[in-house]
Amino acid sequence: MSSLVRTKTGAFSEKDTVQFDMLEKAAAANELQTMLLPIAAGLEHLDTLEADETMRKRVLHGQKNF
Q1: Element (DSSP H or E) covering residue 8
Q2: Rounded to whole angstroms, how far apart are CA atoms 65 and 62?
Q3: Which residue from 17, 21, 22, 19 is spatially nearest to 37, judged by alpha carbons?
Q4: Three-state SS for 55?
Q5: Of the candidates 35, 15, 38, which has an alpha carbon nearest to the alpha carbon of residue 25?
Q6: How many CA atoms lie within 13 A of 49 on its CB side?
Q7: What are phi and psi of 9, to 5 degrees?
Q8: Domain membership of residue 15 as a residue range
Q9: Is there a domain that residue 1 lies in?
Q10: Per-residue pLDDT at 11
Q11: What is the band of 9 on the pLDDT scale with cuts at 50, 70, 90?
């Protein structure tokens, strides 16, 4: 084997990729946001948990909630 290409990782596949030179051109044209996915796109496979104010404070202080 002389090379290895990652074709998929998590929710993202090769079709979701953007070359660095394309990012540089978009940044220079102030259009970078049109090429970037929201952070939530990389977290879609994770479960969500709704927290009340008490739990929020415990999480912020690194305390166990379960």
Answers
A1: strand 8-9
A2: 9
A3: 17
A4: helix
A5: 35
A6: 9
A7: -150, 120
A8: 8-60
A9: no
A10: 83
A11: confident
Domain assignment present for residue 2? The answer is no
Enter the tokens of residue 28. 């220079």
Token pair, residue 58, equals 């415990």
Q: What is the tally of structural domains in the chain?
A: 1
Residue 37, token pair as written in the block: 């996915």
Per-residue burial over 29-44, b if 16 or more Cβ lie within 10 Å, else e, is eeeeeeeeeeeeeeee
For the chain, the 3-state helix, strand and coil shares in percent, each to the nearest 5, are: 40, 5, 55
Phi-psi map region of 58: left, alpha, beta (phi>0 left; psi -120 to 50 alpha)? alpha
Residue 25's pLDDT is 95
Report pLDDT for 23. 93
